[in-house]
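In response to a reviewer's request, we include the raw inputs and outputs for one of the modeled complexes. The two entities were modeled together in a single run.
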Amino acid sequence: MHNFSLIPLLLIMWISSSLSDVIPEQGTHEVLSEPTDNWFMNVSANGSYLFDSSSGEMLGMLAPTRGSIAVNQSRGEVYTPESFYARKYRGKREDVIIVHDMKTLLPLEEIDVPDKIASVFGVPVIKLLNNKKHLVVYNQVPAQSLSIVDIENREFVAEISTPGCAMMLPVQNSDFLMICMDGTLQMMQLDDDGQELNRVRSQNFFSVENDAVFDRVAKTKKGWILISHSGLAYNVSVDESRIIISEPWPLLTDQDLEEQWRPGGGSFVTTHRELNLAYILMHQGGVDTHHEPGSEIWVFDLNKQKRIKRHSSEKISSLEQNAKDIGMKNLSGDLQKGWNNILVLRGENPKLIASTESGVLQVYDALEMKLERTIEEFGPQGLLFRF
Amino acid sequence: MKKETLFTKINFWIDKKADHGSRQLARLTSRRSFLGKLSLSVLGMSSLPLLPVARSLAAEGLEEEGDPKSCDYWRYCAIGGTLCACCGGSATSCPPGTELSLVTWIGTCRNPIDDKDYLISYNDCCGKTVCNRCPCHNTEREKPHYYQSKSSNILWCFGTESQAYHCTIALVKGEYS
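The model returned the following structure tokens for the whole complex.
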């Protein structure tokens, strides 16, 4: 019996001596490196997921916000809008812009803004202006207005009423365009302090009832491209205090029209400014099908105003074997319905990110339209942003 | 706290005045008055039942069929959200403990029974987290969000104590002509 009682003691001594050979580990925190052109973020109200499209790896997450971000690389900051209620879904409302550090994704500061931030699906409600000093916040209560935030001094500086107009399309310096419900554009010009200096209204150039331009837009080399529900494209830009609107040019040929092709989906249009390319989700359907996912991605040369490539989601099934060969899991049948959101990234060899509603996200070589990888479980369906 | 009470009182006073004013207006204006039409077609405010034009177009006696828990139900032709009928409410009532939004967006849907078009007010029910049952997104005559009164991509919890979205109902406001 005495011998047996020694066994546990010896065992403990042996374990202790074994443990003493191991250096105890300490938990650490990852810090992000310098962002590359391949980084993108899936931004949703239930969390924003940062990925590297070249590896498919998730890099980090921003806590849930309203589903918009603005990235300020020069200051190493990311801004998000948020509304807090004292009792989660009720009680006193408090709206703020949260300033996050780009490397740690930690909130640095909060800037108090009027408790009016709009809740709109599928479009950003904050925009950083080209002077990188001011952030514009879209308000809707439902009266429409803008809050101007001074990022450098971390303060709200002005609220500007903009009845009948929404969206913020930064153009030169601290100027931006808005789309208005009467079929016009409105240019807002701010002074260095973020106060309204001037506003200019364009002539009426589209009919919101007959052929509205989408509230999803993309930036081009000189301005922005607006697409109408029927498939007309407008190039819009500014020259000092003048708004320039091009004649509409058609995305569709006569045969496309016969086959009832239309633009549509979530974030259905994205552009590569340096390469002058526009990628647009297209589907076949009638009037009012503007939210249908795209079964094809059409690539346009913006200089020539001409389609240069079509990529069909039907081709995805033939790519399935290829995907398996390079170690990907089976692609969902949902892909046959098409994509809901697309985003082309920056760089000379850009990647195109394409996602479906049910959680399949693909990374393409944007020039060859060749599938490089799929990223599964990329987070709740949200808006795709460059980082 | 005192400030909130004061605001509540002011709000109550404004509501009362607006209600009284609307009734006065109702007595003084014709059924097809410009104001009534403008209100119906542009503003889509739920104060419309106060106006005579809305009263005359009440949904009483409306013959209809369909399942209010189905996205195919005729009233939902321009709805965007989750159906309150699946969340403890109905096509015309908010679930318990939620608050009816006073401001809405509008659609025009065809009733398959009488083949007539009706103005539909889509009111959000607010004050709880999203009821993630029966999501439904139809887009007949739906417009981009810069055209507010015809956009379903906006959360319409306006004029409510809480702006948190829960679900949506569809009220027949009158025949479209």
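As requested, we also summarize the result in words. Chain B touches chain A through 28 residues (CB under 8 Å). The helical segments of chain B are 2-28, 34-43, 52-56.
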